[in-house]
Amino acid sequence: GDDVRRTASPPTARVCFAIRAMSSSEDNAVRLQAMQDACTAAGDDVRALKANKADKTEIDAAIAKLKELKIALDVEVKAAMAAGDEKLAEKENFRNKMSGALEQRLFYIPSFKIYGGVAGLYDYGPPGCAVKSNLQAFWRQHFVLNEGMLELECPSVTPEVVLQASGHVEKFTDLMVKDVVTKDCFRADHLVEENLERILADPMTPADRRRELEDMLARIEEFTAEEMGAAIVNLGIKAPETKNDLSAPYPFNLMFPTQIGPSGAAQGFLRPETAQGIFVNFRDLLYYNGGKLPFAAAQVGQSFRNEIAPRAGLLRVREFTQAEIEHFVHPEKKEHARFNEVADVELNLFSRDAQLAAVKKPFLMTAREAVAKGIVANETLAYFVARTHVFLEKIGIDLKRLRFRQHLQHEMAHYAEDCWDAEIECTYGWIECVGLADRSAFDLKAHSDKSKVELTAYERYDEPVISEVFVCEPNKKDMGKAFKKDAKAVTDALMALSQEDAFALAAKIDADGAATLATAAGEKEILPGMVSVRMETQKLSGRNFTPSVIEPSFGIGRIMYCMFEHSFYVRGDDEQKTVFKFSPLIAPIKLAIFPLVNDSGMNAHAEKLSRELSSEGVSTKLDTTATTVGKRYARNDELGIPFAVTVDHRTLQDGTVTVRERDSCDQVRVLSADVLALVKRMCALTHTWEDATAGLEKQAAAAE
Fold first, then answer.
1. Each residue's pLDDT tens digit, 88-98
2. What is the signed CA dihedral for 363, 364, 369, 372, rounded to 10 degrees?
3. Which of 137, 261, 440, 490 is the most exposed place for a label (fewest CB within 10 A)?
């Protein structure tokens, strides 16, 4: 298993595409295979009749039947291929139209655009910044504030030793291949996936071959360099543009290296994830929390990965925002005090068994039932799965296109107890946007072993127990005389020894009269009497233990991209009227305000209302341009602004304004002084438009 989490790195197609292909085309493939088998059988009949010198009439009838079957098969194959091409074209057109709207309205654009841009780097414009800020603010409210979590902010530059302990220096890699002529670089698994997808999309791929390729696609993340190379050779894969041969795959570390300080002596990296900053601060966080478990710490910040071939917009980038939670818990007490609050949330689960079944489909099940049946390992993990479901629903993710996929056994690291990914479907397929893992005690143990600092919690027993305890007791007086200023380093090294290593050291001293010990001050010779290593019977009132950690890890950019796709549509009456139906919670601007015409009285009222709402924390966009109301509505719809206020002639008489809802285009009249309360209720999601406007005067909508 891989010792390094890759949560915010985009998923490969792996199981996602394999299962999508099965669910969408398996019936069609089976039908075409049956027609192909019928053609084969009819051809065999013709050959048999000819071999047996059957009557010409009988042979002609068999040939006619064969031709009829071949024509039917040809028609079906062409129809299946055309349907696949049409579906692909629809996705491309949707994606291009949405991306054009996002870039035109400056949600996000390629970084350093005037210099040609850099792959995998993007700038967020004003509405993109606002959406991202609102998303992060709601994440903090939903998780950090609601759960009473401890929030940290740690540096992006991380010393090498930290990432050695976590496994990133050794294992944070993707397999890369090069065009042997041009030296262009490609991710090996992407090339294999694309070829597998192309073959699987062919309706004439035989059923047994299809199953073989789907299995390969499901396992691709676990391929060794040798297995990946064999797949490239077997599939005859060449460089995409030049068709040149490819090099053998080799691992490429995805971290950005840097030097800390002017001398370059201290090696560092831009962090590939935010989690390590939480783990190394565990001891201080536990103290801050009064020594009590369970508790959770959270961090939102930038992470960096030097992706080999960034693609798919915000889904695979070199700098991205992560929001990670590390929930520390007793390894034998993974119940959650608030589990009953979410126990009846119905989840779309794609369990390990469901992925390996003949019919590969997710199923609906409550969090309570999933824990009771052992599908999700424990209450705490299920609690965060359910809370993540609620979070994604509230920000506008379509629940029909959300599933929680359990990692297959070969995907999980050896130490992990259970892992699930929140996958959201978009035009690129099923995308892993949140990783939820029970990582056991691996991370704290790894940093404790490397740093020689104990990262444990204390558990008090209900009743004292008698136990055999390992004791390694340095003779501080003798060591002080022998090692002087290095005495502390020697003491620390002795105390960090495992039980096995300490007894081995003692045996060496007894046998040879001295033993060498590696310390921070160099190798030192330990003599008889300097240390006592023994087992002794003690009455214990408690013990130290290493907590387990449950880790939900959110890729903010990926969630945003999927949210953009789920929110985007075109009004039926006009192909040019594009709309983002953002949840009011997340929308970049909550309210557009404009006067009906360019009138000094209307302008003054609109400006006053805008200032009042802004001072109360409601973001507004004041639009006094001399264009029609319909065009101004359309402009604001492109930004996903959920509500619009129009100041008109009647406003100057009775102080009422019209409020329009973006998606229904319904309008009501309300007192200008009541707009703030109305909008706040809807933006907090405590009221729907229908609830909030019940009983208000309906306003006939002007032509838009």
1. 788 888 998 99
2. 20
3. 261
